[in-house]
Amino acid sequence: MSARVRMSELSWVEVERRLARDAIVIVPVGSLEQHGHHLPLGVDTFLATAIAERGALRIAALVAPVIPYGYKSQPRTGGGDHFPGTTGLDGATLTGIVRDVVRELARHGAKRIAIVDGHYENEMFLTEGVDLAIRELRRDGLDDTRVVKLRYFEDVPEETIRLLWPDNYPGMALEHAALMETSMMLHVAPELVDLAIAPDEPSALFPGYDVYPPDRSLVPPSGALSSPGRATAQFGEHLVETFVDAVTTALTRGLA
Ligand code: ZN
Ligand code: MN
């Protein structure tokens, strides 16, 4: 088994060979979105890709090129789209990209496909893309394609919550550019993190509803939704290993 998992680095012959062995094909999906002062715009893309590639090595899967744009950043989960560089797709565009990629993979014989999402706001547009692809494939007579879709951070084990947030866990929606993502970036791509300028603001407090256009005064000025202050590469390694375990387990069970 070759250690190469990126589809873009393989020949068609090799892809054909691995699909004939029923390899799972993982499609990571990220975003180009502000992540505070201390992290780059590509965090969701880098982390979804890192987890997909590490997981693929374990289960002999292939990894398709990441979809590097996501649905529009929302204030309560990503800070919102007013930060320079934050570049969101319309829902129909993201849906269409996912639909096309899933259909094309299936057309060439991938029967087990996984969408590994790194960006909160993508969720239902990925669902819609998968649903439309499966409908189209059925109409074309291909009815044995199965897809698992998950956020890599979907399941955070209790022991991880106790380790990282012994006092209070702000919840995953506020973990934007905060302890979790910052720690993982320190493990995966430390050269892209500048902890010296990490904000130390209190967690954002949002009401339980959205207003359009958004009220920017509710979003912390830095764009981080809770504090990354205690981030370490060791936490990052723990989180990456935990999520690679969770994702590979989900894929092997969901696509058994
Ligand atoms: Zn993020
Ligand atoms: Mn995001």
Could you characterize the architecture of this molecule?
The protein is α/β, with parallel strands linked by helices and 256 residues long. It has eight helices and six strands, in the order H-E-H-E-E-H-E-H-E-H-E-H-H-H. It has helices at residues 12-20, 43-59, 75-78, 91-107, 123-139, 158-164, 179-188, 233-254; strands at residues 25-29, 62-63, 70-71, 88-89, 112-117, 146-151. Strands 2-1-5-6 form a four-stranded parallel beta sheet, with helices on both faces. Strand 5 (112-117), helix 5 (123-139) and strand 6 (146-151) form a beta-alpha-beta unit. Helix 2 crosses helix 8, helix 4 (91-107) crosses helix 5 and helix 7 packs across helix 8 (233-254). The chain is globular and about 55 Å long. The two termini are 20 Å apart. Residues 31, 33, 44, 78, 119-120 line the site of manganese (II) ion. The site of manganese (II) ion has 6 residues, from loops.
Q: Mind sketching the topology for me?
A:
Layout: H1 12-20, E1 25-29, H2 43-59, E2 62-63, E3 70-71, H3 75-78, E4 88-89, H4 91-107, E5 112-117, H5 123-139, E6 146-151, H6 158-164, H7 179-188, H8 233-254
Parallel strand pairs: 1-2, 1-5, 3-4, 5-6
Helix pairs in contact: 2-7, 2-8, 4-5, 7-8
The structure holds zinc ion and manganese (II) ion (MN).
Short synopsis of the structure:
By secondary structure, the protein is of the alpha/beta class. 40% of the residues lie in helices and 9% in strands. The chain is built from eight helices and six strands; from the N terminus they run αβαββαβαβαβααα.
> What value does the average pLDDT take?
96
State the distance separating the first and last CA atoms.
Answer: 20 Å
Alpha-beta content class: alpha/beta
Query: How do the strands of the widest beta sheet line up side by side?
Result: 2-1-5-6
How many strands in all?
Answer: 6
Q: Which term fits the overall shape?
A: globular
Major sheet size, sense and barrel closure: 4 strands, parallel
Query: Which compounds are bound in this model?
Result: zinc ion, manganese (II) ion
The helicity comes to: 40-55%
Supply Rg.
18 Å
Strand content: 5-15%
| H and E order | HEHEEHEHEHEHHH
How many helical elements?
Answer: 8
